Amino acid sequence: MLSVKNLTRKYKNGSSYINAVDNISTDFKVGDFVFVVGASGSGKSTLLNILCGLDTKIEGSVFVDGVDTSEFTKKEWAIYRNHYVGFIFQEYNLIEHLKVWENVALPLMFQGISRKEAKVKAIEELKRVGLEKFANKRPDQMSGGQNQRIAIARALVTNPKVIMADEPTGALDTELGHKVIEYLKEVSNDRVVVVVSHDEDLAETYATRIITLEDGKIIDDSAPVTEQYIQTKEISFERPKMRFSMMMKFAKNNISSRMVRSLFTSSIVSIGYISIFLLTFLIMGINGSIIDTLGKLVPEDQYQVYNIENTEITESMMSDLQDLDEIENIRYNVSESISFESRLGDNVNSTLYPIPYDSAQLTQYGELFGRLPATDSEIVVSIATAQQMRDLLTVDEDSYGYIFDLIDGVVIDLEFISYELLDEELVTTLGSYTIVGMTTGNFMSNNVYLDYDEVLDLSELINSEVTYRTTATAYLTISSEEDVEDFYVLMRDDYNLVVENFFSSITSGVEDFMMKALKWFIGIASISLVVSGILIGLVIYTSIIERIKEIGILTAIGAKASNIVGIFLVESAFIGLLSSGIATLMALLITKAINSLFTNIIETPLNLLSAGVFEMTLLSPSVLVIAIVIAFSVVYSMLAGLIPSFKAARLNAIKALRKE
After folding, report:
1. Cα distances (Å, whole numbers) of residue 27 to 128, 185, 193
2. Which residues have a Cβ under 8 Å from the Cβ of 450 and sit 6 or more positions away?
3. Rg for the chain (alpha carbons), in Å?
4. Residue span of the structural domain in which 465 resides
5. 143 and 112 housed in the same domain
6. How many CA within 13 A on the CB side of residue 120?
7. pLDDT for 399-436, tens place per residue?
8. N or C end: fewer C-beta atoms under 10 angstroms in the chain?
9. 245 falls within a domain
């Protein structure tokens, strides 16, 4: 039952007020088929809008089942319209981009009912009005009479207690108008039906009660209600929320119906994200390439040991260090410049190194031909040394085996040359050694590798007056950061030594620099995102302007403010997702093209010169970066659409419904 007590609705007209509804008190009971009639401007539609909660700026009271609505919130009014009221409009007010059954099911989906269940109920209601076979058509494919029956089905699908119809026959011919009124009278047996009409003859024919308004006052009531309604229970406002899938449906339909604008907007917005992608891929590619190259030149598991005061690390100290559980092996860092006579009689100048403790390091940049030394009189030479020995101008991978065959088993005399006076050359013969291997890793370095202990002996022979050895290379048995940190402390406190991992120190410095550069680059690229955010906000605002009437319809059938906000936020998210999708595709295509050019023009020749040591990927795509940017794009777009979405939720439903 509905009741109004001393109901007044004033509208400001300049400095004075006009009473559209003037101190009305009346009741509407179940079973009533009420016609509210009167001339235009008499207050009929205003009364109807008040009864369904679209217009709440009133004086006096409206009671629903005995409950005073004066304290209703906007959300509670929305739930009341959705659950208690079925609203039938003069102009049908169907959502054009939804199918017939979706229009009918819309109030149910605002209640949170699943799409599947809502469809079943909508089809049942369409059967009652004889339109079930048109369920999958759209309103613009239907006639005016059919659309009005669809609107009736939508009003009845929630089984409301009150049906309110605002000029439901105004857009129909006489015959169809009578059919609509007859159907409404049929459903009035167990509910209140209030019809606003200017057609007094229609009212006389079908109404069980006629209320006549003039200048906002009731001047006649053919069957006033005299019984008093007593409240029996509270109105429940605990209702499920509108499902996200329904918001997605509205957003998808709007995006697809304005696809050209959506693609244009998303393409403009994507420019900023493409810049961020490419800058990030560039930094990650360069950073990764530098780290990979350093990993080849500076092994990750090698630790350098220094004497803090730059004094000798004695042999006894080395022995003590070797006995530590944390150290697998430790060696002095030793190398010497040597020379030997080549095939043509010219001196080959080389650097003498010990075979690494981890002998695999000899092949980590290339390949080992032959074998490692088995005695202290056997040596391995680099491909550059072999090339100079045989006076070869160029070499390539296909000739490595042939070159090694030329030097395999050759015995050479290693010499150390010094100059005591400017014109006097002093030559120290170090010994005769047999070449048993060749490494292709150090393509540009003239290196000779010998047994570690032999290199130490030769070093002492060459530097007889120099006994200080201040650095060493260690391999540790530990790997966790905590254990390594404890080991650093042990070496400093007990041995006055410093331990450093070259790979970690260099790569951490490189990564720090790259991350700072990335922040600067992204900061600059983000300027375009500010413009993008403004553009998205304008697009959503334009969409709202174009769909004001749709917003009014949704509000009238029970959409809460949060539902309206949600619909446009999801639409914003769609734009963000589409923008980031375009940006991802374009960034990957550009990355592929740039990397291909870089490989052909720069990387391949560089690899030939470095034997693969300086391999580089210019742009390195990252799935994590792509995921982060897509997520950011969606969230940022939603934030950009937040203000217009809230404005949409605050639109006056009555004015919105009048929007053409």
Report:
1. 29, 19, 12
2. 352, 353, 354, 355, 373, 376, 379, 433, 458
3. 44
4. 303-500
5. yes
6. 4
7. 889 999 999 999 999 988 776 655 666 778 888 999 99
8. C
9. no
